[in-house]
Amino acid sequence: MNSMSSPTSSTQTDDATVCWELSVDGERYCYATTPDESATALDMVILMFLDETKTDSWDDVGRFAAIARDYSTLGPREIAGILGIDLLRVVSAPDPSDPPWTFSDPRGGDVATLRTWTENNAC
Length: 123
Prior knowledge:
alpha+beta, 4 helices, about 25% strand
C-alpha cells in the first residue's frame, strides 16, 4: 500500500466543510473541503480509492462511473480511462440515486460505501 491509499486530508475553514468518504474493508478514503470545491473532493476520493484497485471485472463499475460523472469534476473520457471502461458506458450509465451509495467491493471484500455530508467543523 502506498502513501495515497487511505489518508484523511482536509482544508480547514471557518465555514461549512463538505466531506466525501468511501469506506471499504475497514479502510477510509476521505477528503474534506469547502462547499465550492465539493466535486474536487470527490475526485480525490475516487483517485485515492482506485490507485491500487482494479475495476475491469467489477459488477458496479457502471454505477460508480455515473456517480463520478454526475458529482465530480472528472470528464467522461477521464472516468472511462480511470475505470478502464468504454466511454459509451460512462455517458449512457443511468443517473445514480441520492447518496449514500453502496457497492460490491471491487477487490473482493464485503461492501464499499460512498457518502457525503456537510458539517461546521472538519470531518
